[in-house]
Amino acid sequence: MAMMRLRREDPRVVGSFRLHRRLGAGGMGVVYLGSDRRGQRVALKVIRPDLAEDQEFRSRFAREVSAARRIRGGCTARLVAADLEAERPWFATQYVPGPSLHDKVAEEGPLTAAQIAAVGAALSEGLVAVHEAGVVHRDLKPSNILLSPKGPRIIDFGIAWATGASTLTHVGTAVGSPGFLAPEQVRGAAVTPATDVFALGATLAYAATADSPFGHGSSEVMLYRVVHEEPHLQGVPDALAPLVRACLAKDPEERPSTLQLSMRLKEIAAREAQGLPDGRPPAQRARVERPTGRLPEGSADHAELRTERRTGGSAPRPQGGAPGGPHSRPSSPRHPRSPGGPSSRPTAGRTGGRPAPRTTGAGRRPSRPDPKLMRQRLIVFIVVTLIVALGIAAAQKL
């Protein structure tokens, strides 16, 4: 994050914090790098003097502090201190080192598919915590995402609002960034978690192309495109394009949830990191190393997502009980598989022209026998055979 020297008009001390550098300035105020008596570094945000008397801006600032207090987890910078009654209200959060996603892409170019998927998975998981707190960010964009060594962090909840609230406007213009606003924000309709999903989709498109999916132009032109035109996703990797397009659906009901996004992006990140194509055989898909942070097996959310994936919306994955034998791909509604059709590979253990069922304890059919298990069974068989043979020989001697 770029730092600038303090200006003559900047305060040197705010509350119990000494200020060292400017980190940036926005519509509401200035953000400084500060430290407390123990040396803990903070990002301290102070409302501009000309806005400190504006009750609306004070209210927005108070909402930002309230949102920061309510959100749990490592997706945002932790709130350290605040004073909303000061002549110039301020609050301090834990300092997050690292560039913004906007600066990273602007200086070094688009990210790889694996990087985009990893960042997107962390952000969508972070948004789950934000939305569970009853907050909608409403201004998610590349400059509000910091890439820290511990993962991306979402900052600047200055226009965050409770789920279901309508969009605030100034002189008829929606508050936020035109290239990343959702259509419902432009129309002044209620905001929901799906509003942040749209912004996340536009943010991932920027990470892949170094450009907004709705191009450039005046605010009016950009807002019109968001509502009436389809996004331009040329340059977005094939592995991510369908998911990004789903996030940018005009209808909020058609967008995936943040939990679904987190799960799918983790899968894509793991696959891209290993260089596996989308069309790999089911046996290879089963061997993909799962990323950390996945929901535990058996949880309600995990079961819901497994049901959703079986009914569509993601790349095909092997599922238990799929017709056609243990080596076949799962059936698709658009391309039904004939139950009596041949398997994609030779299948051992056929009886009457149909594959002999073999299941695991969880009811899923493995794509191939476990070599280690087969060796163990062979050893047991040999030992039992020797014991029986020795017993027979001993009986004959008697």
From TrEMBL:
SUPFAM superfamilies: Protein kinase-like (PK-like). ATP binds at residue 45. It comes from the Bacteria. Residues 271-371 are annotated as: Disordered. Coiled coil: none annotated. The keyword Glycoprotein does not apply. Residues 312-331 have a biased composition (Low complexity). Keywords: ATP-binding, Kinase, Membrane, Nucleotide-binding, Transferase, Transmembrane, Transmembrane helix. The chain crosses the membrane at residues 378-395. This is Protein kinase. It comes from Streptomyces yangpuensis.
